Amino acid sequence: MARFLIGIAFVLVAFAAAAQEGYPTRPISMIVPFPPGGVADLTGRPIAAQMEKVLKQPIVPVNRAGAGGKVGYAVAANSKPDGHTIIMALSSVSIFPEVDKLFNLKPAYTLDQLVPIALISADPTILVVHPSLPVKSVKELVAFAKARPGQLTFSSSGIYGTLHIAMEMFVHAANLKFKHLPTTGAGPAITALLGGHVEMLASGPAAVIAHVRAGKMHPLAGWGAKRVAALPDLPTFRELGYKDVEFYIWAGLYAPRGTPEVAMKALREAARKAVEAPEFKAVMTKLETQINYLDAPEFQVFWDRDAERLLRTVRRVGKVEDKK
Question: What is the Cα–Cα distance from 63 to 197, expressed in whole angstroms?
Fold first, then answer.
């Protein structure tokens, strides 16, 4: 009997190992925590198209927008860790657990519920304004805004979202007062600016570069340490004397913690090959977004450092109530 039971155990172990080696066994869901049209969506779809060629299973982008990305982040973090759910996250993923603490709420998710797969891109945000705003520089904007405290409005991807926190850095450094119109994602935030419902927006270059070139938005400055390659004449906030105004919208892939190692290895390898694919490079070039690939270990170090900086800003902003 003992030999029989041992034999059964070996069979089960072998079966489990074989099942894992066959990963993925069905389509993979890639949660995109924002509506179509934003950085996560524009990056997620082409990377999914290339990764599925490597993994031999469809990778289906699923837009789960809400609360500046918090809804989608929570869905992914609390998903079954079997390798068949991943998420294309932005830097705002670091923010919401801290926000929940501000409001004495149980966090919808915690950062340790997610494990990095790969960093794909990291673009500095740029400040764009509606053409009707009679300013051509940050200096002119600051003077115009200070003469009209609380009258100018900026849109964002949601309260405490990526675009909100970037703008709060500038507001604090320049000692300004703006109104804030939060939306459900970068796409709706851009639409609000194009429609003249707001005067300003902080955005990743990829999402607005076409509108800038069409004259529908005017760029004033960038949040990066260096100028945006696609806009070489655009100064950085650092150049303009705002030393602490630095922010990047990075896009990276994560899986729920507990995802089997064989799945993580396959996902990391698929991401590595995807960013090297000529088709993906062509898409990113068209979007004028630089690929900044980091494998999981290096991405973890990058993430930890970035999160510390963002959390300092969140704590300074404090509680912001959603008036909707």
Answer: 25
Sign of CA dihedral 36, 165, 225, 303: negative
pLDDT in tens, 204-239: 888 899 999 999 999 999 999 899 988 999 999 999
Q: Give the whole-angstrom CA distance, residue 178 versus residue 171.
A: 8
Q: Cα separation of 94 and 258, whole Å? A: 19
For the whole model, what pTM was predicted?
0.79
CA–CA separation, 51 and 96 (whole Å)? 28
- Give how far Cα 6 sits from Cα of 2, 16, 17, Å: 6, 15, 17
Please answer whether residues 208 and 230 qualify as being in contact, where contact means their C-beta atoms are separated by less than 8 angstroms: no
Check the CA dihedral 58-63-64-68 and report its sign. positive
* pLDDT (tens digit per residue) in 124-183: 999 999 999 999 999 999 999 999 999 999 999 888 888 999 999 999 999 999 999 999
Of 58, 2, 71, 49, residue with least CA distance to 26 = 58
Distance of CA 291 to the CA centre of its chain: 14
